Amino acid sequence: MVTGGGRLRPHWQRFMGALGALDPSLMAERWEAARRLLHQNGVTYNIYGDPQGMERPWPLDMIPLLIPAEEWDAIEAGLIQRATLLNAMLADLYGPQDLIRSGRLPAALLYSDRGFQRACHGAVPTGGVFLHLYAADLARAPDGRWWVLGDRTQTPSGAGYALENRAVVSRVLTDAFKDCNVRTLGPFFTALREMLVRLAPRPTRDPRIVLLTPGPYNETYFEHAYLARHLGITLVEGGDLTVRDRQVFLKTLSGLEPVDVILRRLDDDYCDPLELRADSSLGVAGLVQAVRAGTVTVANALGTGLIESLSFKPFLPMLCRHLLGEELKIPGVAMWWCGQEEERTYVVEHLDRLVIKPAFAHLGSEPVFGSSLFRQERQDLIARLRARPADFIGQEQLGLSTVPTWIDGALQPRPLVMRVYLAAKPEGGYTVMPGGLTRMSATAGRLIVSMQRGGGSKDTWVMSRGPAEGRPAPPRPQGVPAEVRGTEPRTVAARDVDVKPQSGDLPSRVADGLFWLGRYAERSESTLRILRGVYTRLSDGTRPGVGDELVPLMRLMDWTGMVPRDLADMAESGTGRGLRQALQGAVFDGGHPNSLRANIQRLHRTAAGVRDRLSLDMWRVISQLDRQSEPASARSRIDTAMLLRLDDLITTLAALAGLEQESMTRGPGWRFLDIGRRLERGINSLALMRGTRICDAAGDDPAVLEVLLELGESFMTYRERYYTTAQRTPVLYLLLCDETNPRALAYQLSHLARHLAALPRPPVANLRVNQSPITAAIRLIEDTREILREPEIIRDRFALRNALNSLADRLPEISNLLAHAYFSHAFSRPA
């Protein structure tokens, strides 16, 4: 920000003039606005082993890193050259290996590295491009020169976070963003999508592109869902894909659909348990065979993680002259590979001035600063260097320049590392994102910059010489390709956008996730209503009949496994010892399998697995629900406070249901979500009847009937229709047989029948149509509806008991038939 003499640099003068006075109160308001935007957008970063929880809010500093146009031009040219060089190296190492044969690279450098995937040798990707997306970590020395610290050639992460940083900071610092003529990021992502479209190995009007993620527990899963939505491609996990006849297929509701391009976020080793890492459960068995056959393009190509190893870095200047006939434009930090005798001797003699790092990525040990070692530690390190010299790199200890960071109401310096992204062009060469993901250290003197170690992030502003082109990236991409949204130039002019709905293209895993999302939402609501019923009566002792109504509620909690039976029996006898402690466990104990907290946690985890299919508002509501169900302080656990909290949770669940009904397109995804809701509501209705012993003589007790009407959300309907106290027959009709009551079992079955009839039919191959699971499920629902049409079940206790037992067996079978129909892909989709 400032020169060595303390003067403000020219490009920072423009920014500071637009920012105005650094009033702590005004900056605090801006930071609060940024924090709320990140919170609402659900921007998270997963930190493994964090005692505060793995999913943490994304750390963003408001003050961007500013780079003038002239400085950026040099960075851009240098990185395009570097990406071209690394791609040429990969083409040789996985091809003729002339660099090894000629002695320009030691053979041990390649064959000692587990990053070299022998199974991929000889597999030539589409167009001969191995490196489709590349990122470089850059550091600026105190003299202003940029150096390359590391190359990300396997699955470079962070581009989505950079886009989100821009969306937030440009809204918080709107005036400064405009005055500084900041170059926009949108054209880079348009070019990235265009490149992916052109990678399809087969001639097709609309290639199927997927983003392969390890799943919701990966540290950057938010970015995977974000990019898939922004690029308009399908987010998949390894289990969503299968290989048949050396062709990759996506498992969808309509069967198996061929996949053309895979943008992967899986490390090389994990991509194929058949030929790479046998213990991987994240990849796709047979993927390497499909790549060899040329039926699918994987970006980046399998095996590109090889040149992330530091062992190659000392050879890059020589290889650049040999392969490109040019000098390396952006140097790397000086390194010495200890596998060579002269270099090893230098490292040992100058250990105090060097950092010792693993030569190969698979070694994964921490860097060791030679200057910080005691005498015995130094001797032990030298012994390890001499025992296995090829495993170590000596690196010059580079002092990092600092970037201004807003901390504790003032600007403070922090060391920075900037990651810049490049995408291959279809016609050759690379395009560079004008900006990137800047990260800074958590403390002033720490030279290791890592998000896993508490570091923060910044937006990176590349300033143009004149008015910036285009418009800022949209703050929240919602899953429509750029050429359809109209926020970027239309670059895919060669094909028309197909606006016809693709009803059968929903991945089966997503359908399954939405199905269980509906079930967990309804299960949480049912649990919540029972708990609210209990706390309502505990907090209002003056209401007539409270004690009588508490008895069936406690029976129901026993039936559903929320409290132990002995406690329920004591509550019935009027003692109630330990009741509140057990109730609090039924609300807050995440380890209790039937507690409210456990059910909401399941809902949140399931939603995370299908996050790319949920609207931003739906995700915000689900995140709010998860926060509201966190354990309360002891002061907040009194009966009245608990009742208010449960009321808030009911409201949030109602908001989620409202978004499902009013904002989701009526496609297969919505149908599976609603099927889960209807099925679970039906199962819960039966549990209410059986748990309150409606089939026994106690079923005539007005207290039992009042509780059933309350938990079935049908109290007002009953009062409007019958103008009388609760009577057994009309209550049973309203909750079981009335197809106009949204809470009745008959209503759920009616909607289930309509949903199943509208779902795409899965391939049945050699099976006869009348033997398909979906046909069996429809027939089972119709038979169940016939049972509810029998008048005896609401008049005769014996007939009611038989009917409830039969229905309790039938409803779970519908779930089994759906799973068999749509999730076991034994056959390809018929041509």
Automatic annotation (TrEMBL):
InterPro entries: ATP-dep_Glu-Cys_Ligase-2, CP_ATPgrasp_2, DUF403. Residues 465-489 are annotated as: Disordered. This is Circularly permuted type 2 ATP-grasp protein. Residues 64-440 form the Circularly permuted ATP-grasp type domain. Residues 506-823 form the DUF403 domain.
